[in-house]
Amino acid sequence: MTVTTPLPLGIDVGGSGIKGAPVDLDAGALTTERLRIDTPEHSTPAAVADVIARIVDAFTDEIGPGAPIGVTIPGVVMHGVVKTAANIDSSWIDCPIEDLLEQRLGRDIVVVNDADAAGVGELQHGAAAGRSGLVIVTTLGTGIGTAMLYDGVLVPNSEFGHLEVDGQDAESRAAASARNRDALGWREYAARLSRYYQALESVTWPDLFVVGGGISRRADKFLPLIECRTPLVAASLANTAGIIGAARLAADAQGERGRHTA
Ligand code: BGC
């Protein structure tokens, strides 16, 4: 008899789109093209849950009934409850999104911070693979997300995008959105990133920074211009890191639950 293990599904909730796909964890790759649905204009938990349900439905045949499902949210997530909402609707604060989704979908769901998921993706299959010591993955997008990984273990919700740098919230100056808003050239943007990475390394002393987020596709334009003591490399999974990491974290959590109930 062939036993087929259900494929995990990763879903990445972003400011403009909600994207999901089944993941082959051995290959560290999506098994099929990701499905992207626009984030609802008024992106309350209920409206986002509707979109997540549509994505799960779309992949039901591929993933099977007991599949692990990992969902990312751009805010602090403690034990399935969202605690902050820097770039999302304020109604997310204190929302028990994991329970809400589990009731709605009748499945086990794991909800994690978006940068933590991207960090785990890069650690398992990308630019942080095989790196020991302290690795900090940063995602430069609407905000700045960070994942802190020590010897391959994630310390969740590090939130170093909100370090105070030169008297300001770091992400308001150094996120990719700030580069667009202020129409910065690469050199000017790299100067802001230098300030940011210098501030970050002075309180964390990492072995490596991995620079992710959509803008990492253009890393050759700004990475060599960043001045800091810690080595920097570009993320390698581009926009699939969050989906892959979320699927991995959900599969691990399901394995843990299995061990506890065995
Ligand atoms: C949030 C983080 C999130 C990051 C990237 C920040 O504003 O506080 O939780 O990881 O944006 O989306």
Give me a quick take on this structure.
The protein has nine helices and 15 strands.
Write a concise keyword list for the protein shown above.
24% strand; five-stranded mixed sheet; 2 domains; binds beta-D-glucopyranose; 15 strands; Nucleotidyltransferase, domain 5; single chain; alpha/beta; globular; six-stranded mixed sheet; 262 residues
Could you characterize the architecture of this molecule?
- With 262 residues, the protein is α/β, with parallel strands linked by helices.
- It has 2 domains: 9-116 and 240-261, ATPase, nucleotide binding domain (Nucleotidyltransferase, domain 5, 2-Layer Sandwich), CATH 3.30.420.40; 130-236, Nucleotidyltransferase, domain 5, CATH 3.30.420.40.
- Helices cover 36% and strands 24% of the residues.
- The chain has 9 helices and 15 strands.
- The strands form 4 sheets. Strands 1, 2, 3, 4, 5 and 8 form a 6-stranded mixed β-sheet that branches.
- The longest helix has 21 residues, at 241-261.
- Beta-D-glucopyranose is lined by residues 74-76, 84, 86-87, 113-115, 139, 141, 143, 145, 159, 161, 171.
Protein topology:
Blueprint (H helix, E strand, L loop, with lengths): L8 E5 L3 E8 L4 E2 L4 E4 L6 H14 L1 H4 L5 E5 L3 E2 L2 E2 L14 H9 L3 E5 H12 L8 E7 L3 E7 L2 E3 L8 E2 L2 E2 H5 L1 H6 L4 H19 L3 E5 L6 H4 L9 E3 L6 H21 L1
Parallel strand pairs: 1-5, 5-8, 9-14, 14-15
Antiparallel strand pairs: 1-2, 2-3, 2-4, 6-7, 9-10, 10-11, 12-13
Helix pairs in contact: 1-3, 4-9
This protein binds beta-D-glucopyranose.
CATH class descriptor of the largest domain: Alpha Beta
What is the assigned CATH homologous superfamily of the largest domain? ATPase, nucleotide binding domain
CATH hierarchy: architecture of the largest domain = 2-Layer Sandwich
Largest sheet: 6 strands, mixed
Order of helices and strands: EEEEHHEEEHEHEEEEEHHHEHEH
Bound molecules: beta-D-glucopyranose
Provide the gyration radius in Å: 18 Å
